[in-house]
Every structure is written in C-alpha cells, then in structure tokens.
Amino acid sequence: MKPAILEKHWRDALTTCPCCGMGIREENTPDDGIPDGQAVEFVYTCGAAVFIGTSGNASPGRACPAPLDVAIDDLAHRVHDAVEEEEAADEAA
Questions:
Q1: Which DSSP letter does residue 30 get?
Q2: Helix, strand, coil in percent for the chain, rounding step 5
Q3: Could you please report the per-residue DSSP string of 6-58?
Q4: How do residues 32-75 score in pLDDT, each as one tens digit?
Q5: Spatial CB neighbours of 90, under 8 Å, sequence gap ≥ 6
Q6: Span 12-31, pLDDT tens digits
Q7: Which residue from 53, 55, 56, 57 is spatially nearest to 29, judged by alpha carbons?
C-alpha cells in the first residue's frame, strides 16, 4: 500500500475523535515540532491526539477518556480495506 494513499484515507477517517466523536481542535505538522516520522497530529477537543505517520500508519498520541488504541485499531481495518479497494480499482482501470 502506498503511504500517500494511506495518509489520505487516515485523514478522511480521523476528522473526529475515533472514540468519542469530538472534532479536531488543532492540526500539527513537522513544522510545529511533532516527532520525526510523523506526517500530522490531530488534537481533538476531548484532549485525545492521534499521529499519522509518514509510512501511512496511525497511533495514539494522547488518550481520550475512551479507549483510543482500540478505536484506532478498528479504524485501521477500515482504512486498509478502503485503500485496497481503491488500488484494485486503479489496477482494473
């Protein structure tokens, strides 16, 4: 899977906190000082934060009151399925 396609799908999937549904309070990039290997950090109004890595993975930064790691794992399956469908459609075209 291409990291750029994964990042796009992660961005689409993470418009709200995957645990509680709160909106994004801020979006941080490497220029804002997030760790190396991370493309973006979404910080939600609930206090949770999620990193999208430059390799196309996602990981919790700060926990939500709900179980963030479980929610990200669930989202990962949906993101990977969507990317596989998109890549298969591109190959068929």
A1: G
A2: 40, 25, 30
A3: HHHHHHHHTSB-TTT-PBEEEEE-GGGTPPTTEEEEEEETTS-EEEEETTS-E
A4: 999 999 999 999 999 999 999 998 888 888 776 667 777 888 88
A5: none
A6: 999 999 888 999 999 999 99
A7: 53
